[in-house]
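Tokens in:
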């Protein structure tokens, strides 16, 4: 990662120093830096609350910035052949079951046995 969370926090403090404001201000540059850090940390499997805590930014606000930056709140999902997906899921300790939906997220969550609508509902509720 090119920038660390502590470097980001220092930049926020420097930008807001001496302004006499109660609320911190995040310009476009700081927002884009926060998004880049958050995306990298999410790829490493960190939850939103942990990322927000490290960056000292409200978790809901950080998620909003990330969604705005992507243009849509959707995440690209790659479909794999069943054997490849089963092998990857087995690496996180799951057993293969035949004929049911099996979803392995980049964050390490494994969902199986649900229909698509139920799996989507569950994923929206995960941190």
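Residues out:
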């Amino acid at each position: 990662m090119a920038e660390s969370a502590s470097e980001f926090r220092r930049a926020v403090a420097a930008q807001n120093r001496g302004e006499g404001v109660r609320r911190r201000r995040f310009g476009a540059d700081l927002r884009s830096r926060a998004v880049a850090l958050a995306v990298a940390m999410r790829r490493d499997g960190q939850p939103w609350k942990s990322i927000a805590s490290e960056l000292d930014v409200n978790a809901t606000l950080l998620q909003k910035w990330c969604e705005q930056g992507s243009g849509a709140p959707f995440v690209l999902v790659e479909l794999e052949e069943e054997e490849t997906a089963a092998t990857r899921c087995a690496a996180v300790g799951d057993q293969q079951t035949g004929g049911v939906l099996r979803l392995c997220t980049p964050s390490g969550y494994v969902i199986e046995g649900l229909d698509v609508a139920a799996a989507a509902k569950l994923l929206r509720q995960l941190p």
